[in-house]
Amino acid sequence: MSIMRKKIVAGNWKMNLTKDQSLELVNEISKNVDNLSEETEVIVSPSFVNLSSVVDSTSRNKKVQVAAQNMHFAENGAFTGEVSAEMLESIGISTVILGHSERREYFNEGSHLLTKKVEQALEHKMRIIFCFGEKLEDRQSNNHFDIVREQLQDSLFHLNEVDWDSIVLAYEPVWAIGTGETASPEQAQEMHAFIRKLVENKYDDEVSNRVSILYGGSVKPANAEEIFSKPDVDGGLIGGASLNASDFTAIINAI
Ligand code: PEP
To answer: What 3-state class would DSSP assign to 44?
Structure first.
């Protein structure tokens, strides 16, 4: 059976790039993705302050979507410095990255909080790129499958099947993020197949075959093709290499 899952290459710009730099980068990327197939989607995720400008500059190029890197779980209120789903919606953002390991590590975002964020995003009909993955010590002690199972169970497995149309999974082993060390294509495939099986066991094979599972962790032009060639890897979440138009374009072309 051939499965038509969406292929996605998403760039996470993190806390990088000024407004002018963001516009310059997205313009470069937009020029290079015109011939991309319908099934492939390109996403960029600028900082909050540059989201609006990037949305405006990509409004005529349907090939490049724009996502937020985070959002708050509450509808509104006294949460100084935070950004709500409604605010994102109001500037044309319909995709949000949640659960990135840097949010988990530096801002203490755990399963309880992430579950609330997931629910709030769905309430606003936003698509969620949900990040999860084990730390080095988990892999060294052979706990990586258990950790990944828990992360998914805790934040996503209470959702119904329809909600899963709004979920994109991003498996990001923490030891591979920004370290230059990539999971081998075999390690990525092994974990992605495990994740798809978890979803199948919890729901059914329709849900599990439909959900895109991205790999993230030091993807670069030199290793993208091999990783993306694995049957359960449906694209990538790219950090460092997404800040350079030619590297990011090469990664997109690898899909
Ligand atoms: C990320 O932060 O999601 C990421 C995968 O970063 P990098 O590509 O730099 O490892």
So the answer is: strand
